[in-house]
Amino acid sequence: MDDKLTIRIPCFVSPKRLIMAFSYYFWRRRILQPCNLRAYYFSAKQKKLFFSNLSEFSSSSSHLLLLDDYESNNDTKPNQTFDPQSFFASAIERAVNIRYLNKTHSQLFKWGLQEDGFLITKLIIGFCDVGEVHYARQLFDEFPDPYLHLWNAIIRGYSKHYMFTDAISIYGRMQFLSVSPDCFTLPPLLKACSGLPSLQLGQIVHAHIFRHGFESDVFVQNGLVSLYTKCQRIKLARIVFDGLLNHKTIVSWTSMISGYAQNDQPLDAVKIFHEMRRMDVVNPDHVTLVSVLRAYADLEDLENGKSLHGFVIKTGFEFELDLKIGLTAMYAKCGQVMTAKSLFDQVELPNVILWNAMISGFAKNSYPEEAMKYFKRMIITSTIPDSITVRSAILACSQMGSLEQARWIDNYVMKLYKDDIFVRTGLIDMYAKCGNVELARNVFNSTIEKDVVVWTAMIVGYGLHGYGKEAIDLFQTMKRVGVRANDVTFIGLLTACNHAGLVNEGWRFFHSMKEEFGIEPRHQHYACVVDILGRAGFLDKAYEFISKMPIEPGVSVWGALLSGCKIYRYVELGEYAAEKLFAIDPVNTGHYVQLSNLYASARMWNGVGKIRVLMKEMGLEKDVGYSMIEIGGKLHAFRMGDKTHPKVKEIYKKLDFLERRLIEAEFCLFVVN
User: Of 14, 229, 246, 542, which has the fewest Cβ atoms less than 10 A away?
Assistant: First the structure.
């Protein structure tokens, strides 16, 4: 009986039929009554074929049921032709949930394999893969003398599940016990340093890489490139990348391209991509193309973006979701929102990132109604918006100016992101732009942790409505609580002083920027000061101020001076400002209209005629102004002589009625030129 293995099974001869018999037996055993079995003996050759077929065709549960059946019907273990280590390793790899892994773990104790390092390593990896990292750590801690592969398994598990601090901690313990890392230890460890992110820890690991001789290992070096790019040390990343010489893999190139793209250096990202294509050593994958698309989107390079879209189709990556998102974002950022929409509509179940690309694309390209339409459509599909989605929707509401829509989105987002400081800042700005400063102040007051952006949003809100005193009082409070102002804060302050006519206060705040806060004024600050002086009638002082500017005056500065000249009919200086504007921005219709209005206010009709002829020759047309009114949460726009509204008859009928009532009341409308 030494070369025979006794197993109670139905009598079949073929090994493949044996597998079928076992499957039938297991089914009967678990669902129906146990079937009648009789002893069957087969040779060593048949046993080998049986177990190879079992390993190939059976599932994890079948492995474990076989063991149960064997142990309940045999007093001895299989002979040496049966390899339990391979058997259990296969069972662990096939396990699909924690129940099977727990069952396998218990079987290891029954078979005396609980200290088999190979199988425990497999178990640790298995438990980490199903998300039971804490149980995996318990297995690791209970192992009497963990060797390197076990350390690698637990570090990998922590890093995979974004438990970066634990990964660093276990590596520290590994170093304390003088266990040297290998090339499999370091990549997940570098990922943990990148995820924190911690440049200091990353540099310590970099030193260990040199110490243990892995400076030429391409996988380890790829991890270093990724680390330095995520820690915003792009020059160090480039040094490591260049040190790879001819050993660069697609991961190396992708890490460098994405590093440049994520660190606001899109031009360098494109250059690296072209260098990779020119060398023709590796082919880009879809991850590489996503980073290149981001670079083209940041550069707003539509032509090259379209070319890359063609390359995506040519290489067969057009169905990759990440590329769909990248293409949608690229087209939206380049102003091609309808093309972006067509790509979006091709995806049956868009994820939140794709929704974000579409909603933010509409909002940033001045399609607020479409942005809100897609936001509400997203909610209907039960996709939970994230903070980025909500901020894009708030931006759309700000553009619409609808107070009813603003209140609706406020009620919605406060259920999800009431503590998100970016969302709260957006709400303050939204209410201010929708005309309700009181509601903006309510959001401001209810914000517990106020940073400089929150304070600035409220100051800018006051500035938009000309509440100069309130803006200044809030600024003084901000200083008292120790929040340091930034350049945008001063734009809000100067705007408030401008609209409230507070010339001296505005002048004082401008000079305090550099003297007290060390902030270098930008074009917008200079333009605000020129506007303050111009509106107050100090046009000569405004011109003198421009002449002494340390930077070249831009469109906003000369535009502010021209606007002041129009108010006070200062034609000569206005013409000079207009000439500067035409030289800088010759196709902007607004500058010509401003000068024409200046001539008209001074009754210089020849000048008005010349401007009109000049605009006609240049093919420029004046943008038609319009008024807006909100009714029932919907905004309606009207232009002069506009008859496109679906209720135009009712509107003009009401206007006629109002006109008759005014005549009956002897009300006269005077138009003053």
Answer: 246
Mean pLDDT score, 394-405: 93
Report yes or no on 545 lying in a domain: no
Round the average pLDDT of the chain to a whole number and report it. 86
pTM reported for the whole predicted model = 0.75
Long-range interactions of 322-327: CB distance < 8 A, separation 24+: 322/286, 322/287, 322/290, 323/286, 323/289, 323/290, 323/293, 324/354, 325/290, 325/353, 325/354, 325/357, 326/289, 326/290, 326/293, 326/294, 326/297, 327/293
Of 429, 405, 539, which Cα lies nearest the Cα of 492? 429
Contact 263, 232 (CB under 8 A): yes
Pairing mode, strands 626-631 and 634-639: antiparallel
**64, 94 contact by CB (below 8 A):** no
DSSP letters for 269-327: HHHHHHHHHHHTSS---HHHHHHHHHHHHHHT-HHHHHHHHHHHHHTT-TT-HHHHHHH
Quick check: 427 and 658 in contact, CB under 8 A?
no
Contact 485, 452 (CB under 8 A): yes
Work out the number of other CB atoms within 10 angstroms of the CB of residue 317: 19
Q: 408-420 as b/e, with b when 16 or more CB fall inside 10 Å?
A: ebbebbbeebeeb
Q: Is it the case that residue 8 has pLDDT exceeding 80? A: no
**Confidence band for 56, pLDDT divided at 50, 70 and 90:** very low
Euclidean distance between CA atoms 238 and 295, whole angstroms: 17
List the Cα angle 74/78/84 in 5-degree steps: 120
Residue 590, in any domain of the structure = yes
Instruction: Write phi, then psi, for 235 (nearest 5 degrees).
Output: -70, -40
Is residue 561 classed as helix, strand or coil in its secondary structure? helix
Q: Determine the distance from the C-alpha atom of residue 126 to the mean position of all C-alpha atoms in its chain, rounded to a whole number.
A: 31
Residue 608 CB partners (closer than 8 Å, separation 6+) = 596, 599, 600
Residue 263 lies in a domain: no
Give φ, ψ of 671 to 5 degrees: -105, 120
Number of domains into which the chain is organized: 3
Q: How does residue 36 score in pLDDT terms, banded at 50, 70 and 90? A: very low
In the block, tokens 């177990």 appear at: 51
Arithmetic mean of pLDDT, 602-620: 90
Domain that holds residue 362: 352-438
26-40, 338-352, 367-381, 565-579: which has the minimum mean pLDDT?
Answer: 26-40
Provide DSSP, 491-505. HHHHHHHHHHT-HHH
Question: In the beta sheet, which residues pair with residue 9?
Answer: 38
Q: Output the CA torsion sign for 333, 336, 342, 346.
A: negative
Contact in structure between 409 and 396 (CB atoms under 8 Å): no
Domain end, chosen from 412, 438, 464, is at 438
- How far apart CA 406 and CA 414 sit, in angstroms, is 12
Within-domain flag for 642: yes
- How many CB atoms within 10 Å of residue 367? 20
The residues, any chain, with a CB within 8 Å of residue 143's CB and separated by 6 or more, are: 115, 117, 120, 150
Give the side-chain half-sphere CA count within 13 A for 474: 25
- End of a domain among 389, 412, 438? 438
